[in-house]
Amino acid sequence: AVILECGGKMHMQEREWEHACTSFFQSFKMYDEAGEPRRLACLQYLVLASMLQETSVDPFASQEARAYKGHPEIRAMTSLVESFQNDDIAQFERILKSHSHSLMSDSFIKAYIDDLRQTICTKVLVKVIGPYTRVSISHMASELNNIPETEVEALLVALILDGKIQGKIDQVQGVFIRQDQLVRHNKEAKKSEALGKWSLALEDVNLKVVKKIRADDVIESRSSKASKVTYN
Questions:
Q1: Could you tell me if 66 and 31 are in contact, meaning their C-beta atoms sit under 8 angstroms apart?
Q2: Is 223 a residue whose pLDDT tops 90?
């Protein structure tokens, strides 16, 4: 069980959340079967890894884990995972604050709190962007429990680089523009450019025609004058 727990921690350091979940669950079961108090800490690590993995599987779904869901030492983590699954950042932060002692007293859990915050923020951010083609940075900051707009931009950049969203940040306008909107905008820009070129081409042709007509008029006028001189 100890080896599996250490293996889970190594997977966490490598950000291999799924493998960490597997190791922690196996370790928890072995501790539980042996009646070891360490099972509670390992169960909390399992819940932590499952949140970072962003899995839809309830970490308390197994019969072994479900028995400890209401345990006083697990209650804080239980509440945390519920707010995480509901994408409730405000509640998530309240739980971190109200249960700071029980959560932060474990140095291993404390080391991943910032990762948890970033994970829930990116989850909510993708959800906020979803129905829109253009979203203001200020609106997203508000939806993320009023975090600084610079943090929103950093999260957007990370999501773009990870391929989770497609688009660009317009820092001048303070908005995020989704890729489909960019494509539409580019098509309209190209269409407008083509129309502009076509208009200029027509204008050029028109000028050439006018010049040709004027030139013909001049030639005709000169020919007429020459004929009169010859006649006289």
A1: no
A2: no
Model confidence band, residue 136 (pLDDT cutoffs 50, 70, 90): very high
The first and second tokens of residue 95, run together, are 């739980």
Running DSSP on this structure, what letter comes out for residue 52? H
Distance CA 161, CA 40 (A): 37
Radius of gyration of the chain (CA): 34
- pTM passes above 0.90: no
* Chain position carrying tokens 């908005």: 175
Q: From CA 157, how far away is CA 164, in angstroms rounded?
A: 10
Amino acid identity of 46? L
